[in-house]
Specification:
54% of the residues lie in helices and 7% in strands. It has a 3-stranded parallel sheet with strand order 1-2-3. It starts with 6 loop residues before the first strand and ends in a 7-residue tail after the last helix. α7 packs across α8 and α10 crosses α12. By secondary structure, the protein is mostly helical. It is globular and about 75 Å long. It has 13 helices and 5 strands. The chain folds into 2 domains: 204 residues, HUPs (Rossmann fold); 88 residues, Orthogonal Bundle (Tyrosyl-Transfer RNA Synthetase). β1, α1 and β2 form a beta-alpha-beta unit. The protein binds tryptophanyl-5'AMP. The site of tryptophanyl-5'AMP has 25 residues, from β1, α1 and α7.
Length: 334
């Protein structure tokens, strides 16, 4: 708890093009619940370098992402929106927590296994300790709640384990965070391979809807979405393509899967796909328009970046100092 309100932390990697999965699984929920909390939304650029990045591209994408947070509806006067690399406490706490995390725990992380398989030529130590940095992000602000998609649950469980372990030794230092998973959209699948998560790094662009896709592209991708030969809009595991489209439709319209089944009862997949595409366009279009307005406003964005980095640095220092004292680092002479 910071300044009387419960605290929320979340972040996204500044890597690749943001997908509809990132939006429906995370960003949309951030906007919905942000008013209730003191919030920190970080562009986690330090996480991004676990995979090789082109420096100019990383800088550009980080700024795009920060702008998108605002375009999605997060008021930067009320929400602390900042670059992870601007706040030194993330790296400092991460080192300390890595001494309280076991190799066995890290080697069980499925994201590590997946990324190690994908980047076999660069299985660096950062890729392995990535979840510790994520734990540091969250614990640094004493976050009570962390809104994420289902794919981040394993990392969040580890964060809780680290916090419990540390608290058991040193007393109540960290708030143990809870995940917040939205009702719809917590795991959006690829439109081409509906058993695989929709991902920024998918090589097939038709599998993902990118937040900056124009309406024609969105509709075209939905028309091509892989379905089945059942010819009925039913929400069930045996029809993963249709189930995914229903999830997307529900997350965009606020309807339930049952309402959706009734709405499209007796209608063909063509009609249904068109309706899903249109629902997605009506969510993305206002976001894209706001993004265009904002991205031209350099001074405004620079001001936000500076002010929020200072705020995050100041607030995170409170936790860091407490941790350093607990573990026995000598106090600084001021
Ligand atoms: P990242 O950048 O891969 O994804 C950002 C957020 O989007 C969610 N997400 C999805 N949700 C539903 N369906 C999908 N297909 C989908 N793909 C992605 C993710 O669950 C996530 O919420 N390690 C994190 C970033 C991070 C972080 C943190 C998050 C670093 N530190 C601290 C929360 C708290 C990551 O790589 O997310």
């Amino acid at each position: 708890m910071l300044d009387g309100k419960k605290t929320l932390f979340s972040g996204m990697q500044a890597t690749g093009n943001l997908t509809l999965g990132n939006y429906l699984g995370a960003l949309k929920n951030w906007v919905t619940i942000s008013d209730e909390y003191q919030t920190f939304f970080s562009v986690v650029d330090m996480h991004s370098i676990t995979v090789r990045q082109d420096p100019a591209e990383l800088r550009k994408r980080a700024r795009m992402l920060l702008t998108l947070y605002i375009a999605a509806g997060l008021d930067p006067e009320k929400n602390c929106i900042y670059y992870q690399s601007h706040v030194s406490g993330h790296a400092e706490l991460s080192w300390i927590l890595s001494c309280f995390t076991y190799m066995g725990e890290l080697s069980r992380m499925t994201q590590f296994k997946d990324k190690a398989a994908k980047h076999a030529d660069n299985i660096n130590a950062g890729l392995f300790t990535y979840p510790v940095l994520m734990a540091a992000d969250i614990l640094l602000y004493q976050a009570d709640v962390v809104p994420v998609g289902i794919d981040q649950m394993q990392h969040l469980e580890l964060t809780r384990d680290i916090a419990f372990r540390f608290n058991n030794i040193y007393g109540d230092v960290f708030t143990v965070p809870e995940a917040y998973i939205g009702k719809a959209g917590a795991k959006i699948m690829s439109l081409q391979e509906p058993k695989k998560k929709m991902s920024k790094s998918d090589e097939n662009p038709n599998g993902s809807i990118y937040l900056m896709d124009d309406p024609d592209t969105v509709i075209r991708k939905f028309k091509r979405a892989v379905t089945d030969s059942e010819a009925s809009v039913r929400y069930r595991d045996e029809q993963p393509g249709i189930k995914n489209l229903i999830d997307i439709y529900c997350a965009c319209t606020g309807k339930t899967p049952q309402e959706t089944e009734r709405e499209f009862d007796g209608k063909g997949y063509g009609d249904f796909k068109m309706a899903v595409g249109e629902a997605v366009v009506s969510v993305l279009k206002p976001l894209q328009d706001r993004y265009k307005d904002l991205s031209g406003n350099k001074d405004y964005l620079d001001g936000i970046i500076k002010a929020n980095a200072e705020k995050a640095q100041y607030l995170s220092n409170k936790t860091l100092r407490k941790v350093q004292k607990k573990i026995g680092f000598p106090e600084k002479i001021r």
